[in-house]
Design goal:
44% of the residues lie in helices and 20% in strands. It starts with a strand and ends in a 32-residue tail after the last helix. It is an alpha/beta fold. The protein has eleven helices and eleven strands. The protein has a domain of 160 residues: 3-Layer(aba) Sandwich (Rossmann fold). The strands form three sheets. The protein has a six-stranded parallel sheet, sandwiched between helices. Strands 9-10-11 form a three-stranded antiparallel sheet. The protein binds nicotinamide-adenine-dinucleotide. Nicotinamide-adenine-dinucleotide (NAD) binds next to helix 1, helix 3, helix 5 and helix 10. Pfam families: Ldh_1_N (PF00056). Keywords: NAD, Oxidoreductase. This is Lactate dehydrogenase. InterPro entries: L-lactate/malate_DH, Lactate/malate_DH_N, Lactate_DH/Glyco_Ohase_4_C, NAD(P)-bd_dom_sf.
């Protein structure tokens, strides 16, 4: 299988390429295409990255080549990591609608090129933010099941880790998923959590202790207060801000820790690449695996008795040809409320750049135009 990384010379793209090679996910007979932009410093940096990767990993690197135009992209799996990110500085925010408007033309250019020149079988992993917009644009052009956003998988790995830390266990003993919109609008699906070695009653007791009587109905307010507090504390002592996060409940830490990491200037490239390469490994492995991802839904699942459509992070079965089924059996009432509210906020961002909810596949709608896109300020970006 061949892989293309769009935005390869960026912080996330570079880490994805490095981890793909270092973890030997791709055999030497595969091709890893490093995709940059023909204009500006990106072309130079992409060629430079190729040389650096060969310098470091020649013995076990796959074949490496460079592409600088969307119509040159050829691969079985495409990682979309190109485009702008939110400012990695304390106190500087960017509305999600602004990020959407800025990255829409990037998403459209690759969607159009893949629809016209692709094999018709590529699977796309969307990393770039807003992840849900990238999924909507790609799903319209290529078909819903070939496109998955990795934000919910990264949030899921973080949730499992935070639960494991609180319970004094290793992460591999924890199951469970995060859905919703990537970033501060995520939905920790507490009802899906499983802990190996604990029976149902023991698990219920353990999770009740961790949740401290809170429900997801107060989660958005907690996140906003946490960000405010962290900004104040980190202004004098960044170490103390990270320590403070450690005293909070696990689901709040899932949002607060990466937010603090991104705004510290370090960004979250390593963790993001780790989750992306994990998904790639699953795709290349050929077996069906349950992961969480942002996907374009079309009534294949119901929440709270209502069919769910639109782009949203949910647990899905992922195999070599993309995702197939949604596995969200009985979310708790507060999860249903937050999932549908999150979906509505995603809809609002999509509507802001001229995209409706219909994401039926190539036949359902043409690749949208970005003419309708403009700056807005409804929802803070905060996606990391
Ligand atoms: N989903 C997640 O969990 C997650 C986590 C972290 C970052 N992100 C997102 O990933 C994206 C990349 O983040 P980053 O930190 O690497 O940013 P970055 O600024 O370091 O890199 C972005 C790269 O994209 C390139 N680029 C821009 N337009 C392009 C185009 N049309 N074709 C090819 N390359 C193009 C730029 O030249 C740059 O090299 C951002 O949108 C960011 O918000 C997502």
């Amino acid at each position: 299988m061949d892989v293309a990384v769009l935005g390869a010379a960026g912080d996330v793209g570079r880490q994805v390429c490095t981890q793909l090679i270092e973890r030997r996910v791709l055999p030497t007979s595969s091709r890893l295409q490093l995709v940059g932009r023909a204009d500006g410093p990106s072309a130079r940096a992409t060629h430079g990255l190729r040389a650096d990767l060969i310098d470091a990993y020649d013995e076990h690197a796959p074949l490496l080549d460079v592409a600088l135009r969307p119509d040159e992209v050829v691969a079985d799996v495409i990682v979309l990591a190109a485009g702008r990110t939110t400012p990695a500085q304390p106190g500087v925010t960017m509305p999600r609608t602004q990020l959407a408007a800025d990255n829409l033309p990037v998403f459209e250019a690759y969607a159009q090129a893949l629809a016209e020149h692709g094999s018709g079988h590529e699977v796309v992993i969307v990393v770039s933010n807003p992840v849900e917009l990238g999924v909507a644009v790609m799903a319209r052009a290529l078909g819903r099941h070939r496109v998955i956003g990795m934000g919910a998988w990264l949030d899921t790995l973080r949730f499992r880790r935070e639960l494991a830390v609180s319970l004094g266990l290793r992460r591999h003993r924890i199951g469970g998923f995060v859905g919703g919109q990537h970033g501060e609008d995520l939905v920790p699906l507490w009802s899906t959590v499983r802990i190996s070695g604990l029976d149902v009653d023991e698990r219920r007791q353990a999770l009740a202790g961790l949740r401290r009587g809170r429900t997801l109905d107060t989660f958005s307010g907690e996140v906003a207060r946490a960000q405010e507090l962290l900004t104040q504390v980190a202004a004098d002592d960044p170490g103390a801000a990270f320590d403070l996060i450690g005293s909070w409940p696990p689901d709040l830490r899932v949002v607060a820790r990466p937010w603090m990491t991104h705004t510290s200037g370090a960004k979250t490239a390593n963790g993001t690449a780790n989750a992306t390469v994990g998904l790639l490994d699953t795709l290349l492995d050929g077996r069906d695996t349950v992961v969480a991802g942002q996907v374009a839904l079309c009534d294949e699942t119901t929440v709270g008795g209502e069919p769910l459509d639109g782009v949203l992070g949910v647990p899905v079965v992922l195999g070599p040809e993309g995702w197939t089924r949604v596995l969200l059996d009985e979310p708790a009432p507060d999860e249903v409320r937050r999932l549908t509210a999150s979906r509505d906020r995603i809809d609002a961002t999509l509507a802001h750049v001229g995209l409706g909810r219909a994401v039926g596949g190539p036949a359902a709608a043409a690749v949208p135009t970005h003419a309708a896109a403009g700056a807005g300020s409804a929802i803070a970006g905060g996606v990391s």
